[in-house]
Specification:
The complex is a heterodimer of chains A (445) and B (250). The radius of gyration of chain A is 21 Å and the shape is globular. Helix content of chain A is 28%, strand content 25%. Chain A is an alpha+beta fold. In chain A, 51% of the residues are buried. In chain A, helix 9 (320-337) runs antiparallel to helix 10. In chain A, the strands form 4 sheets. Chain A has an 8-stranded antiparallel beta sheet. In chain A, strands 5, 6, 7, 8, 9 and 10 form a 6-stranded antiparallel beta sheet that branches. A 4-stranded mixed beta sheet of chain A has the order 1-2-4-3, with helices on one face. Chain A has a domain at 187-401: Alpha-Beta Plaits (2-Layer Sandwich), CATH 3.30.70. Chain B has 9 helices and 9 strands. In chain B, helix 1 packs across helix 7 and helix 5 (104-132) runs parallel beside helix 6. Chain B is α/β, with parallel strands linked by helices and 250 residues long. Chain B has helices at residues 14-25, 37-49, 69-79, 97-102, 104-132, 153-172, 206-219, 230-239, 242-245, and strands spanning 5-9, 29-34, 54-59, 86-89, 135-140, 178-185, 187-188, 203-204, 223-226. Classes of the chains: A alpha+beta (445), B alpha/beta (250). Chain A: InterPro entries: FAD-bd_PCMH, FAD-bd_PCMH-like_sf, FAD-bd_PCMH_sub2, Oxid_FAD_bind_N. Chain A: Residues 11-183 form the FAD-binding PCMH-type domain. Chain A: Belongs to the FAD-binding oxidoreductase/transferase type 4 family.
């Protein structure tokens, strides 16, 4: 079925030949059909990747969300095996009441296991737990020649490491087996600490290494003496309390895309000031994990607030030796531009070896923020930020990207040559097409 | 609520599976009936991982069970130790309206699947619940059964007939501990409706419909429109004067 599909950034609506198998036995035949019809295919979960990595314009898209069944869940050991279309939200309905939680969670629960593997997602506990891929015990990879390859760290290990963070290009991830972490309660113990300059962020991060979860929100518009002021948030699973998969309370939603972006200089300045000064900026206490890990999931389709032009997300990581200078420089450039988003995230990664060949996390500091799409102006700002990232020896996150130059990708991911050997010939994405092209004109200008 | 026993007729349907998951999480024992043994097996394995105390499959063509309705039912009830707390009838086909208009055998086949066989299952199930003195019987009909329309009146007639049959049963058991619930869903995003253009506020997820059914059954309701706004929409459609209705291409 021909269907237009958008990614989370709402930048473009792209036509695909779409198939949505309900059972995993149907996936392989549909995969072949899509390849026969269009020449290429890509798996697509819940569409939370921001740019063009979840799209395959003009080609086939195999949507995995209906394949969401558990194969086995051992409540004694916390090992769970399930179809790759199972979301973390649905997984937690199964596991939280019985005392188990994913070892690593990104900032949305609307991610499938397959998506979490293909992007090797990270969370607030990277400094102690690494990325999602570190907790994958095995996975089933359907190649376009019809074979189902059982991959694990000790069998078909090369393909396993290529598939973790492999952007869905090594084949269709049919099932995933993960190790969960034991929790006593669905409550979190949380401390929020206000900081008045980005320098303080680095001090707080260093002081918080014994907290399993830490992250900071930053006011991207503040300049001068309060450059990079924000709120440092750290948390741990509470040692007692209820085990509820979902908190009580109704959900909000952004029902329609407004005709213009609701995020502009004025609203952003007002929001950031109010958010920085709100009483809970110094909150210390307990809350359900949903509010701690997934604050934005509480508002369905929050991506619509940026209006019909959509938005870019920019997420980079820079190495520890130069992190202070590089992050300060990035924040100064963003503040001077007057654009940016309400949600700016700063976090220190640990120095665990990456789980996959193209894994984004590496030792250092990561900065993530949204930019409403204002065309050339936005692209120019990001090109400016690229220079700082490249000079620092950092890299950008493909799951968030819709515009990084191919040479920045190549410089940031030295294992890419090794990775290419494992790409399935029938799998393709718009992101990968972009990376495979010769340097663009705008790059040379 | 733990330890309930549940029979699902048409267990591979998206709504039925989501409904079964709610019971599994509460530790129910389930029998899953349908045609496709491999799919039923995947679902049973999943329900066990979700906390079901038991999940057995019963492979048959529900529209025409080889053993006959009575024996097939008795066999499923026996898998649950003879006790059935809840039975959900969820199978059905959307059917091709044009094909049914052109071919009386096809028309009869659609009516048999969606209505005649369904009423047979309701009959054997209701008699079982009556003998045990309590239980809940749930039949998934459709808003399409509320008024005949040119685009799908064969499907609509079958679902409307099923709804009327279940309504009569609810009347028969009024004042007893046997509850009969007729469910009238609107558009649901499932494989069955993949041929239709989707999107927009009228479409519901199977999770939402399953949760609505679970709540209505717990309350002992006899009719459920799901999502709720279909009650208003269908009230208008039912009451539109023919002069206006006949000009609409719906």
């Amino acid at each position: 079925m021909r269907q237009p599909i958008k990614s989370w950034g709402n930048l473009a609506s792209v036509d695909h030949e779409v198939a949505t198998p309900a059972f995993r036995e149907d996936a392989a035949p549909l995969l072949s059909t899509l390849v026969e019809k269009t020449g290429s295919v890509l798996a697509h979960g819940l569409g939370r990747s921001y740019g063009d990595s979840p799209l395959n314009g003009g080609g086939g898209l195999l949507i995995t969300r209906r394949m969401d069944r558990c194969h086995a869940f051992d409540i004694a050991t916390g090992v769970l095996r399930a179809d790759a279309g199972l979301s973390l939200a649905d997984l937690h309905v199964i596991t939280v009441p019985r005392g188990w939680f994913v070892a690593v969670t990104p900032g949305t629960k609307f991610v499938t296991l397959g998506g979490a593997v293909a992007n090797d997602v990270h969370g607030k506990n990277h400094h102690v737990a690494g990325s999602f891929g570190h907790h994958v015990r095995a996975l089933g990879l359907r190649r376009s020649d019809g074979t189902l390859v059982d991959c694990a760290p000790d069998r078909n290990a090369d393909l396993f490491h290529a598939t973790i963070g492999g952007l869905g290009l090594t084949g269709l991830i049919e099932w995933v087996e993960i190790q969960l972490q034991a929790i006593a309660s669905s409550d979190m113990e949380v401390e929020n600490i206000r900081f008045d300059h980005v320098d303080r962020f680095f001090d707080l991060a260093a002081e918080s290494l014994d907290w399993p979860y830490s992250v900071a929100w930053v006011d991207c518009l503040s300049q001068g003496a309060s450059l990079g002021r924000g709120i440092f948030s750290r948390g741990r699973h509470a040692p007692d309390g209820p085990r509820l998969a979902q908190p009580a309370g109704a959900k909000l939603a952004v029902p329609l895309t407004p005709p213009i972006s609701l995020i502009n200089g004025l609203s952003l300045r007002a929001f950031n000031a109010a958010y920085y000064n709100r009483p809970s900026a110094t909150f210390a206490g307990r809350c359900h994990f949903d509010g701690f890990f997934y604050p934005l999931d509480g508002v369905h389709h929050w991506n619509r607030v940026y209006g019909p032009s959509g938005f870019y997300q920019y997420q980079c990581v820079v190495p520890p030796a130069v992190a202070r200078e590089a992050v300060t420089d990035l924040l100064a450039r963003i503040a001077a531009s007057g654009t940016g988003s309400c949600l700016v995230v700063l976090k220190n990664f640990g120095d665990v070896a990456p789980a996959g060949l193209l894994s984004f996390p590496m030792a250092g500091t990561t900065l993530a923020l949204d930019f409403p799409n204002q065309g050339q102006r936005t692209l120019a700002l990001m090109a400016d930020l690229d220079r700082t990232v490249a000079a620092a020896g950092g890299r950008l996150y493909p799951a968030k990207d819709a515009r990084m130059p191919a040479d920045l990708f190549a410089a940031g991911y030295p294992a890419v040559a090794d990775f290419k050997r494992h790409i399935d010939p029938a799998f393709m994405s718009d992101f990968w097409r972009r990376m495979e092209q010769a340097p663009t004109k705008s790059k040379q200008a | 609520m733990t330890g309930q026993t549940v029979v699902i007729l048409g267990a591979t349907s998206a709504v039925a599976e989501r409904y079964a998951r709610l019971h599994a999480a509460r530790g129910a024992r389930l029998v899953l009936a349908g045609r496709d043994s491999r799919r039923l097996g995947s679902i049973a394995t999943d329900l066990m991982a979700r906390g079901a105390a038991g999940a057995e499959v019963a492979v048959m063509d529900l529209a025409a069970p080889a053993a006959g309705f009575d024996a097939a039912w008795a066999d499923m009830a026996a898998k649950l130790g003879g006790r059935v707390d809840t039975a959900l009838l969820a199978y059905g086909i959307l059917g091709d309206q044009k094909a049914a208009e052109a071919d009386t055998a096809e028309m009869a086949r659609q009516l048999t699947t969606n209505m005649t066989s369904a009423c047979a299952w309701l009959t054997v199930a209701a008699n079982h619940l009556e003998r045990q003195g309590q239980g809940t019987l749930i039949a998934i009909a459709s808003v399409a059964g509320d008024r005949g329309r040119q685009s799908n009146y064969v499907y609509g007639a079958a679902k409307g007939g099923l709804a009327l049959f279940a309504q009569g049963m609810a009347h028969r058991f009024a004042g007893t501990k046997v509850k009969v619930l007729t469910v009238k869903p609107g558009f649901i995003d499932t494989p069955m409706t993949d041929g239709l253009a989707k999107g927009g506020p009228l479409w519901a997820t199977p999770e939402k419909v399953a949760a609505d059914i679970d709540r209505a059954a717990a309350k002992g309701a006899t009719t459920l429109y799901t999502p709720w706004f279909w009650m208003g929409i269908m009230m208008i459609i039912r009451n539109l004067p023919g002069a206006i209705f006949n000009r609409m291409k719906i």
